[in-house]
Automatic annotation (TrEMBL):
Start and end residues of each UVR domain: 81-116
InterPro entries attached to this UniProt entry: UVR_dom (IPR001943), UVR_dom_sf (IPR036876)
One protein family per Pfam: UVR
Taxonomic superkingdom: Bacteria
UniProt name for this protein: UvrB/UvrC motif-containing protein
Species, as recorded: Ruminococcus turbiniformis
SUPFAM superfamilies in the record: C-terminal UvrC-binding domain of UvrB
Transmembrane segments: none
Length: 122
């Protein structure tokens, strides 16, 4: 998926905007997100930026693409399959970046969800 702002292929973060009752998912790369933070800081709008994006420099766990990309009230099998797909994408990314601890954690999370999906036939 491409960054909404610069068009680069590598998107590692996402934020959501509630505009007039409709929630939009905005994929963004780390560089563009940092630039937007700098602009918000310069304009004195850091609190608004935090509330819109759910991210700020120094935050421990930035939201990643796929974290909330589906409705909470969806069929449980669909929720699990989408979580599985998002986790597998994050696993690939962690392996490419040689973050083996994160990759191992994701591998374990994937195994748990795969057991649930196979056990329920969803």
């Amino acid at each position: 998926m491409k960054c909404q702002f610069c068009g680069r292929d590598h998107v590692d973060r996402v934020f959501y905007i509630n505009w007039m009752g409709t929630v939009y998912q905005v994929p963004v790369c780390a560089g563009c997100l940092d630039k937007m933070w700098q602009q918000a800081s310069a304009a004195g709008k850091t609190e608004e930026f935090k509330s819109y994006t759910g991210w700020w420099p120094g935050k421990q766990e930035p939201r990643r693409l796929g974290d909330r990309a589906f409705p909470e009230l969806a069929v449980p099998g669909l929720i699990n399959r989408r979580k599985l797909k998002a986790l597998k994408a994050r696993l690939t990314e962690a392996a490419e970046q040689e973050d083996y601890e994160e990759a191992a954690r994701l591998r374990d999370d994937i195994a748990v969800i795969e057991r649930e999906v196979c056990a329920h036939g969803n």
